[in-house]
Design brief:
about 130 residues; 10-stranded antiparallel beta sheet; mainly beta
């Protein structure tokens, strides 16, 4: 693909930037944008149902802090910023295997400070 694609995730008037990877799942997610939904917390993971069924690609349960993934059973976009209830260390572990579609730009640990996870918007980078 060559050029980097970014998406913006707006939570509680705060913009997160995600660099997408070169997977078919990331391509399809990008094609469906913009999306909107209410988020939930599961340990140090924010997830939101994006209402779009996407393919699984090299799914794995063990992910890294800063990974953004698609969880097919819940048609959810997941933002990992620390351990989850499934973790056995300080690293995140998904409830079941996810497809990593990108990475958050910057240190994601500040996500612990977000309070209002309603009305999360996911859109193509550069949109105003």
């Amino acid at each position: 693909m060559g050029e980097k694609r970014e998406i913006e995730i707006w939570i509680d008037r705060t913009k997160l930037v995600v660099e997408l990877n070169d997977t078919k799942t990331a391509d399809q997610l990008f094609a469906f944008l913009p999306l909107r939904g209410d988020g939930d917390l599961w340990g140090d993971e924010i997830y939101l149902d994006v209402g779009v069924e996407l393919p699984e690609e090299n799914p794995k349960a063990d992910v890294e802090v800063g990974d953004v993934a698609y969880w097919r059973p819940g048609t959810a976009l997941c933002l990992f910023f620390g351990p989850t209830p499934a973790s056995t260390s300080d690293k995140p572990r998904a409830a079941s295997p996810v497809t990593v579609v990108g990475r958050l730009v910057g240190d994601p640990r500040w996500l612990k400070t977000l309070k209002d996870l309603r009305g999360i918007e996911v859109r193509r980078g550069g949109a105003s």
